[in-house]
Amino acid sequence: MFNPTVEVIVAQSKLREPPNLSYEAILKRFPGLAEADAVCWTGSTANGWGNVFSDIDLYAFADREIDLPVDETMETWPGSDKSGIRWQTWMGEYQKTRVDLTVWSTDTFTKVLEPYLGDEVELCGMSDVLLGFIYRVSIGVPLKNEAYFREMLDLLDKSSFRRALARTTKVWAENALTDAAGQLDADDQASARISAGIAAYRVVDACLILHGELCRNQKWIMRRLERKPECGINPDEFRSVVLNGTRPGESDGDYALRVARWAQGHLVRLDGDFLAAGR
Q1: Is the dihedral of CA 219, 232, 278, 272 positive or negative?
Q2: pTM over cut 0.70
Q3: The domain 161-276: what is its CATH number?
């Protein structure tokens, strides 16, 4: 018999003081950031979605090496993307809270968006790491050089990135619907239910992306819907159709068919939204 045990090494109190995230306070822990060209606070806490156990995410932009603290709480490592983009991550403690600090070259945002600035790119092939980077810059709270972040958001607004990413996500939704149809035909109702649910999430994601909500994490889908009513799907609708599962007397196949039809309806509406957006 499997009897797992959990050993608590360091207990985390639920009564924790939030760290001081003013630039002046952060400089006391990270004096090297004075050499950065721009700094922002980002992630779930900056977006208003954090909780008592959330870590703090900081982005710094610099074209020179930034000296960061070396102590027993930290570790650091380099990262790179197949596109050639590189970064440095520092993870450690700041005022009893974990901090993930990533240092990027100052021109990273421009380089990542470059293919989407001159042309209307049809589909987005960007890696998950860089998709997360774009999202985190888009919600970043400037701590140093606010003008830099205004310029980056202006580039994002001028680019075809959101539309390309929304179209790609719509394709994923359509693929999931095709899977559901095949599974229903094969009487694999349980798998069809899963595929229909995936299609529903993808459709919601595409609607939200097209209207400027770039978070890709499914765990925040209800928060995202609350924030973007203009996407055309409200949280109560999504909860009733998808999250609440099967209705009385409904089989897995019935659920899959109902959710798939709901997703198809929003896919049709998305086509109209794309046309209204200039395509």
Answers
A1: positive
A2: yes
A3: 1.20.120
Look at residues 161, 147, 158 and name the one whose alpha carbon lies nearest to residue 61.
147
| Residue limits of CATH 1.20.120 in the chain | 161-276
For 74, left (φ over 0), alpha (ψ -120 to 50), or beta?
Answer: beta
Q: Which two tokens stand for residue 202?
A: 């993808």
**Are 166 and 209 contacting, i.e. CB atoms less than 8 angstroms apart?**
yes
Strands of the 75-80 sheet, one edge to the other: 75-80, 86-94, 97-104, 56-61, 38-42, 141-144
Q: Return d(Cα 94, Cα 16) in angstroms, integer.
A: 13
pLDDT digits 0-9 by tens, 39-71 = 999 999 999 898 878 899 999 999 999 999 999
What are the phi and psi torsion angles at 5 (to 5°)?
-125, 155
Q: What is the CATH number of domain 23-158?
A: 3.30.460.10
Residues of the chain with CATH 3.30.460.10: 23-158
